[in-house]
């Protein structure tokens, strides 16, 4: 599997997961937005708006049926001539730009109306301003119409006068010429009379509605500010939540692993009451069946090769999640009738022993030291009984450097000869190079990601380590972060045997200091080594084969 980070677009499920995780950020953002809007409503100065409505009719009597361009008329309301007239009506010294900023004009659709609004800090000024601009606009339109009609009257009168002069100069005996001139004169005179009638009563529109005194301010409007503040706060909270979530280095869901790292998910157990503390799952439970599905996928991936198979389970971060997953995989494989051995190579964890009801006794540590053989230390799990277990042992501090050595490699080869499937629970990749070394000995590696404990950097580093040794990593297992609650009551205390206690539960007697002969023996072991038990073919032991002996003096010497 590639270790190159890959970022894909978030899906709707990712946004829903983000909302569940960061809902409080959006709530805070919404509350902040409403608070800012409410503060603006209280602190911003009140603005009042007066509104007058004008009915616009054509200026030219001959074009009564012509549609008026109200957009053009709206611009004329804010034109210089109208502003000058309004300024004179109001008797104000405010400049043109200030007055224009106070005026807004709207034209209702499919009508011949103009709504002229004027804003001011005082309701009286708002009313007077709207009426002033409405009257100024009508006066300006009337003046334009009268000016145009006056020009028409003057033009027609000039034509009439010229025709009269021609008629006077025309020969009296030239009837055709005089009749032609009389016809033109009659037409122009009739037209002149009509224009004079129109000019006497110019109608370009009317004040349909006078502006009334505003009863309340139009700005700031709580019905506009508060919803806008709420919406803006939600958007701000969502943006912050997204940035915080992207900056968060912790894995929050299986989709994060797929989206950011491109790692396939073999098993995803979302957080719930049942998955908060997994423990070992029964065969017929829903979660137990999920582990069975995983075990079938593993066996299908491994195939039916001629040799036995080794499966390594490690975690991207330190925790007991990988131990729990290893136990459940081993149990699922054992329930199929396969010969399965579970090896606890995580020397700092006793999780598997407690879950399976296996006493903490001699195990992997003693086999590596050569003080015990596999036949002596392997045991059967309480459930399922077909599963054999090799616990970590007592002398874990003495073998911490052996997991990466040749002796561990030979031990894994011996385990292959004894079991169809060997499941090794390894330390996390973030704890050191033990998992990387053990991965070289395995046929397949599973990485466990605990949510939200695991960080993306942990996963990237773990994938890098495994990729360097060419490990076969089909995907990741994503589970909620596990705690000791899942182990409560897993094994009765009476069956547990810990270092320093007798098998019967009595406290061991106080250990005396090593004598001179003991010290010489220790120094000889440290300097030259010795050959231990060879029953398992592990003839490279560096400590003497002392069966069930007290190795504390060696441990103390190593510590020193």
Compact summary:
This protein is an alpha/beta fold and 560 residues long.
Number of helices: 18
Q: Kindly state the number of beta strands.
A: 12
Estimate nothing, just give the exact number of structural domains.
Answer: 3
Taking all residues together, what is the mean pLDDT? 83
Could you state the CATH homologous superfamily of the largest domain? P-loop containing nucleotide triphosphate hydrolases
Flag low-confidence runs.
2-9, 489-514, 521-535, 539-555
- In one word, what is the shape? rod-shaped
Name the helix and strand elements from N-terminus to C-terminus, one letter apiece: HEHHHEEHHEHHEHEHEHHHEEHEHEHEHH
Distance between the termini: 44 Å
Largest sheet: 8 strands, mixed
Coiled coil: 146-173
Protein name: Capsular exopolysaccharide family
InterPro entries: Bact_polysacc_biosynth/exp, P-loop_NTPase, Wzc-like_C
Region (Disordered): 498-519
Features:
560 residues; alpha/beta; Bacterial polysaccharide co-polymerase-like; Rossmann fold; 3 domains; 8-stranded mixed sheet; 4-stranded antiparallel sheet; rod-shaped; disordered N terminus
């Amino acid at each position: 599997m590639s270790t190159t980070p890959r970022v894909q677009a978030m899906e709707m499920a990712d946004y829903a997961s983000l909302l569940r995780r960061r809902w409080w950020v959006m709530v805070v953002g919404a509350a902040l937005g409403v608070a800012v809007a409410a503060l603006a409503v209280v602190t911003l100065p009140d603005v009042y708006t007066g509104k007058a409505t004008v009915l616009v009719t054509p200026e030219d009597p001959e074009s009564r049926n012509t549609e008026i361009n109200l957009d053009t008329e709206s611009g004329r309301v804010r034109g210089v001539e109208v502003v000058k007239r309004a300024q004179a009506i109001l008797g104000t010294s405010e400049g043109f730009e200030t007055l224009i900023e106070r005026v807004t004009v709207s034209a209702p659709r499919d009508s011949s109306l103009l709504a002229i609004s004027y804003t001011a800090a005082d309701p009286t000024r708002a009313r007077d301003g709207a009426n002033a601009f409405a009257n100024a606009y009508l006066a300006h339109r009337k003046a334009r119409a009268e000016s145009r009609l006056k020009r028409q009257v003057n033009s027609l009168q000039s034509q009439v006068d010229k025709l009269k002069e021609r008629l006077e100069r025309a020969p009296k005996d030239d009837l055709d010429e005089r009749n032609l001139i009389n016809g033109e004169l009659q037409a122009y005179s009739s037209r002149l009379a009509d224009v004079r009638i129109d000019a006497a009563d110019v109608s370009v529109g009317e004040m349909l509605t006078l502006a009334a005194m505003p009863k309340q301010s139009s700005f700031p409007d709580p019905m506009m500010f508060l919803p806008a503040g709420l919406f803006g706060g939600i958007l701000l909270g969502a943006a912050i939540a997204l940035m915080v979530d992207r900056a968060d280095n912790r894995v929050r869901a299986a989709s994060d692993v797929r989206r950011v790292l491109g790692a396939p998910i073999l098993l995803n157990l979302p957080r719930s009451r049942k998955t908060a503390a997994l423990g070992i799952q029964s065969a017929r439970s829903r979660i137990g069946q999920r582990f069975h599905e995983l075990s079938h996928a593993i066996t299908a991936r491994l195939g039916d090769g001629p040799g036995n198979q080794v499966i390594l389970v490690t975690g991207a971060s330190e925790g007991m999640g990988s131990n729990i997953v290893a136990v459940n995989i081993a149990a699922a494989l054992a329930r199929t009738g396969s010969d399965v051995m579970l090896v606890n190579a995580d020397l700092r964890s006793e999780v598997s022993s407690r879950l399976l009801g296996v006493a903490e006794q001699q195990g992997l540590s003693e086999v590596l030291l050569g003080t015990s053989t596999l036949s002596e230390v392997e045991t059967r799990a309480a459930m399922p009984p077909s599963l054999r277990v090799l616990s970590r042992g007592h002398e874990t501090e003495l073998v911490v450097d052996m997991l990466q050595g040749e002796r561990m490699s030979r031990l894994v080869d011996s385990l292959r000869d004894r079991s169809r499937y060997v499941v090794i629970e390894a330390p996390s990749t973030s704890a050191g190079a033990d998992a990387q070394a053990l991965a070289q000995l395995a046929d397949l590696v599973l990485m466990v990601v605990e949510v939200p404990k695991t960080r993306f950097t942990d996963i990237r580093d773990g994938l890098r380590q495994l990729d360097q040794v060419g490990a076969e990593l089909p995907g990741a297992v994503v589970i909620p972060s596990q705690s000791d609650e899942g182990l409560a009551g897993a094994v009765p205390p009476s069956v547990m045997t810990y270092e320093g206690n007798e098998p019967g539960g009595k406290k061991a007697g106080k250990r005396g200091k090593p004598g001179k002969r003991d010290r010489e023996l220790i120094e000889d072991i440290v300097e030259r080594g010795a050959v231990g038990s060879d029953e398992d073919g592990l003839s490279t032991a560096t400590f003497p084969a002392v069966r069930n002996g007290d190795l504390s003096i060696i441990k103390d010497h190593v510590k020193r």
